[in-house]
Sequence to fold (236 residues):
Amino acid sequence: MLDVQNLSISFSDGAIPFSNLSFSLKEHEVLTVIGASGLGKTTLLKTLGGIHPLKTGTISFNREELSVNRHRIGYVPQGYGLYPWHSVKKNIEIGRRIRKIPSDPELFQEIVDGFNLNSLLERSPRRLSGGEQQRVALARAFYLLPDLFLLDEPFSALDEITKETAYRLFDQVWSKTKPTTLLVTHSLEEAVRFGDQILVMQAGSCQQLANPKVPEKKEALLVELRNLLINPEVNA
Fold:
């Protein structure tokens, strides 16, 4: 279980994107994080990933302090973060190499098959489309077998046709390992589609919604999200 309590962070200029943020997520579930730009969604992922320091609060995973030294954390940033001087194959492998985790050829092939990357393994990321780069970045994070999976708008740069393919591939691979996942998105549809829980971030507050993924309740949930994000005065 991921448990975040009273989390506050600040930037060097003194700005505080959020304070006293608390939420929890069961192991093997997905929390989608949605809200307007500038509220600290990306910074939240960077803080969980040990990239940005927290100011106050606690972050624990399965009752231990969350730490990059103790836990495997897979992170897919905006822009995907691929190394252009490495091939696709080496990009997928690099997380394990950095962590000195032995290779797992069977798992590697399973993930490569899952994301349909076999024909791209020797290419440079410079020779890939945006959708292909996105699949490589996801494959790299999955191959790490993360305890915690952090995704920062992984589908935002894709056209609608490519996006549907990416959704399907992600679902197929995720269901095999089921890492505890935080997925930041600006899409209401993605928030509902992927989230077991939905964290709605607003200026000065946040609200955690359960998403039972019952098809007949989808429209009602989308309406609730629109009211929270677009018409906050409705819920005042």
Q: What stands out?
A: The CA atoms of residues 92 and 136 lie 7 Å apart. The chain has one domain: 2-235.
